[in-house]
Amino acid sequence: MSRAITLLFATACGMSVANIYFAQPLLDQLSNEFTIDHSIIGVVITITQIFYGLGLLLLVPLGDLLNQRRLIIGQMLLSITALVIVGTASYSAVLFTGMALVGLLAVVTQTLVAFAATMASPTERGRVVGIVTSGIVIGILLARTFAGLLTDLAGWRSVYLVSATLMFLMVCIFLKVLPKVEREVKALSYFQLIKSVFMLFIQERTLRIRSVLAMLIFANFSILWTPLVLPLSAPPLTLSHSVIGAFGLIGVAGALAAAQAGKFADRGYGQKTTGIALVLLLISWLFINYLEKSLFALVVGIILLDLAVQAIHVTNQTMILPLRAEARSRLTAGYMVFYSIGSAGGSIASTQTYAHFGWEGVCLLGASISTIALIFWVMTRRFTKY
């Protein structure tokens, strides 16, 4: 798989997944425009994540049944429609509907990951998955920067309308350059396809263990990023949306550094990488806790957290995708359902915690989940190879 195509996949993944996270730095804007209380505004993120989870279960497995090229282009075209609905919403019900569709269709990122893993040779699979997955995490992080800058320049609606335009341009590029890969596909009904996702959980212990780790680390990710705009935009800091969005650029440094994790997994160091990353994840909350006293400490914490989450995520996928070559889309779907559960749970729990216990409560929640993840890994590491 050429480097140019790998980077194109990573870019498309980043653009698609960013659509889910645009709302995070805009929560105060959405709260004001649609008259939604701060204590429940996190439901906007939760709805998106819940439907993202449904898309993972109902749409991503189709990559093992249908032509992946057509599936990718079709989902991206539908995503454009969903973005326009959000960008033109006048009522909260329309906003929620649009957000649900955005989440449902953003799962095209996982079809792209599975497609990339299929195209890559076994010796380079970890590297390719690492680069493509880095595109996803960088897209998540830059979504905040992109949304913050455009909101200050042209209002929050422009974020979704500009994204729809960029997605359309990517579809045009894909129509010309996306490889046409022919492969043998088993004759399965849709019901059998979805049922087989659950069967994979029963049959593959590595999938079960790594999926639970995904749920815990992405809960941590959402616990930081979902409510972060609230203390940064409130006194005494009162930062602009552009400045708040710039914190996403800081997280990119950690995500880029962790892109090498796939290579370590290829060499048999997946478990060591996981253990080190989980320790860094716990340490990151010590720095993040000082947000109101030191923005430098927050920066250090963000880098450590994003480095840890990305390293574990890349390692997880590098260990899972080789399990069943004929079922990579279903393996990805099953694994990412847990990612979505963690992200949705982290979003709603963190905004509720912030409303009642402030930023210190959020940090205690994040540190607690990090501790649980570390203990779970210690208890299960002997059951997984690498």
Describe this structure in words.
The chain has helices spanning 3-21, 27-33, 43-58, 68-87, 92-105, 108-119, 125-154, 157-177, 190-203, 205-225, 229-233, 241-257, 261-266, 270-288, 295-320, 328-380. By secondary structure, it is mainly alpha-helical. Helix 4 (68-87) packs antiparallel against helix 5, helix 10 (205-225) runs antiparallel to helix 15 (295-320) and helix 14 (270-288) packs antiparallel against helix 15 (295-320). It is globular and about 60 Å long. The chain starts with a helix and ends in a 6-residue tail after the last helix. The model has no long low-confidence stretch (mean pLDDT 86).
Q: What portion of residues belong to β-strands?
A: under 5%
Assign a percent range to the helix content: over 70%
Total DSSP helices = 16
Main sheet summary: none
> What would you call the shape?
globular
Distance between the termini: 24 Å
Structural class: mainly alpha
Identify the notable features of this structure and list them briefly.
16 helices; 0% strand; mainly alpha; 78% helix; globular; 386 residues
In short:
This protein has 386 residues and is an all-alpha fold. It has helices spanning 3-21, 27-33, 43-58, 68-87, 92-105, 108-119, 125-154, 157-177, 190-203, 205-225, 229-233, 241-257, 261-266, 270-288, 295-320, 328-380.
